[in-house]
TrEMBL record:
Residues bound to Zn(2+): H271, H335
Superkingdom per UniProt: Bacteria
Pathway linked to the protein: Cofactor biosynthesis; thiamine diphosphate biosynthesis
Pfam families referenced in this protein's UniProt entry, alphabetically: ThiC_Rad_SAM
Sorted UniProt keywords: 4Fe-4S, Iron, Iron-sulfur, Lyase, Metal-binding, S-adenosyl-L-methionine, Thiamine biosynthesis, Zinc
GO cellular component term, pick one: cytosol
Protein encoded by which gene: thiC
GO MF annotation list: 4 iron, 4 sulfur cluster binding; phosphomethylpyrimidine synthase activity; zinc ion binding
Protein known as: Phosphomethylpyrimidine synthase
Swiss-Prot/TrEMBL cofactor(s): [4Fe-4S] cluster
Task performed by this protein: Catalyzes the synthesis of the hydroxymethylpyrimidine phosphate (HMP-P) moiety of thiamine from aminoimidazole ribotide (AIR) in a radical S-adenosyl-L-methionine (SAM)-dependent reaction.
Native organism: Olsenella profusa F0195
Family listed: Belongs to the ThiC family.
Length: 437
């Protein structure tokens, strides 16, 4: 008797096109066979936990449309789960394909379970954050078993991908202690793993127990997102030995998950000067054999708090055009506070602009069609059609409406008024008189 495929990758390797692969093929204008082949190779992932019934699956891979993740979740200072659920709905409406629940306060399981019940986007978590909250015990008192059990709990709850900070080892502790980095470790999960290893003297439990965790992920078809504990937290640390040593470990761990048909993506920088981004994407693709790259920014300068959705969008566009498949949004509140609804909105739109710009540059099928429709709408001075193509129609409408021309016939905006180039050209080409005064 043939067994049921354990994971999307297992199915793909056995020549089976799953309903999720067929749906992704349709959305991406690819053939089912192309998607199946890429999933089999690990170059495309479809995070889809067996238990996430409300999921509308998406594929992640550099040859597909660039996807956007939104981080949410309560903290000790901002802890209203209903507000977080509103942010989830707003994120999905604005086009986010994934939600990471990074809650670090209270009873996190009901919110996680509700997300997996109601959210059509992929759901991701970082189990190491949740371990302290789940057990309500200090970090140093937790055992390796406790961490593994939290991964299992999240997998059972229906989470589609988990970030695991497996890439740091005892030698990383020594290297960081030697003071080689300007910003040490800025990954929240990475810092917790580092602190646990420092306090207990033990090896990284996510590294040491990796094969066991892979089996849990195989059982539930949870995708492993290999966390970048050593992502540079400032330009000075970009592409340093610490980041590269971790990446080499992540390459080995990618293969070990693939050996058990478990899907993998690899997380990346961080803060990084623009001239290093393309090279980093190439190195990652080579070391991790084409596994999709999930970048956190990259932020291309350190000096714009309040505007880091812009510094990240610049880096994200460059990264995605150079091969990254998945962008983690960054909001204006980055480095400053938990984002509110407006921060979330601005962060998503900035990431979607970056993703879309990269998709056009990469020649992703159909990526430019919306821009062409916008050009036609602009040439026709058809404002409703322009709003329909806008990434954020509400903002576009509000700006025009608040500053409409005094004598508004809909044939200009208040920027140039009667000197509107589009109007003048339309009239001149139609043989009409161009009246300016
Ligand atoms: S008035 Fe100027 S900015 Fe406005 S639509 Fe015409 S050309 Fe564009």
């Amino acid at each position: 008797m043939t067994r049921t495929p354990a994971t999307q990758m297992d199915a793909a390797r056995r020549g089976i096109v799953t309903p999720q692969m067929a749906l992704v093929a349709q959305k991406e204008r690819r053939t089912s066979e192309e998607i199946r082949g890429w999933v089999a190779e690990g170059r495309v992932i479809i995070p889809a936990n067996h238990a996430h019934a409300s999921l509308e699956p998406n594929g992640i891979g550099s040859m597909l449309r660039t996807k956007v993740n939104v981080n949410l979740g309560v903290s000790r200072d901002v802890r209203d789960y209903d507000v977080e659920m509103q942010k989830v709905r707003s994120a999905v409406d604005l086009g986010a394909e994934a939600i990471m629940d990074l809650s670090s306060h209270g009873d996190t399981q009901p919110f996680r379970q509700r997300l997996c019940r109601e959210c059509p986007a992929m759901v991701g978590t970082v189990p190491v954050y949740d371990a302290v909250i789940h057990y309500q015990r200090d970090l140093a008192t937790l055992s390796a078993d406790d961490f593994v059990d939290v991964v299992r709990l999240h997998a059972e709850d229906g989470v589609d991908f988990v970030t695991l900070h497996c890439g740091i080892a005892r030698e990383t502790i020594d290297e960081i202690r030697r003071g080689t980095r300007r910003m040490n470790i800025v990954s929240r999960g990475g810092s917790l793993v580092f602190a646990w290893m420092s306090m207990t003297g033990n090896e990284n439990p996510f590294l040491e127990r990796y094969d066991e965790i892979v089996e849990i992920c195989r059982e539930h078809d949870v995708t492993i997102s290999l966390g970048d504990a050593c992502r540079p937290g400032c330009l000075a640390d970009a592409t340093d030995g610490c980041q590269m040593a971790e990446l080499l470990r992540l390459g080995e761990l990618t293969q070990r998950a693939w050996d058990r048909d478990v899907q993998v993506m690899v997380e990346g920088p961080g803060h990084m000067p623009m001239d290093q981004i393309a090279a980093n994407m190439k190195v990652q693709q080579s070391v991790c054999k084409g596994a999709p790259f999930y970048v956190l920014g990259p932020l291309v300068t350190d000096v714009a708090p309040g505007y880091d959705h812009i510094t990240a969008a610049i880096g994200g566009a460059l990264a995605a055009a150079s091969g990254a498949a998945f962008l983690c949004y960054v909001t204006p509140a980055e480095h400053l506070a938990l984002p509110n609804m407006d921060d979330v909105r601005q962060g998503i739109i900035a990431s979607r602009i970056a993703a879309h710009a990269a998709d056009i540059a990469k020649g992703i099928p159909g990526a430019r069609e919306r821009d062409d429709r916008m050009a036609d709408a602009r040439r026709a001075l058809d404002w409703d059609a322009q709003f329909a193509q806008a990434l954020d129609p509400a903002i576009a409408w509000a700006i025009r409406d608040s500053r409409a021309p005094e004598d508004d016939h809909g044939d200009t905006c208040s920027m140039c008024g009667k000197f509107c180039a589009v109007r003048s050209m339309n009239k001149a080409l139609a043989g009409e008189r161009v009246d300016l005064l």
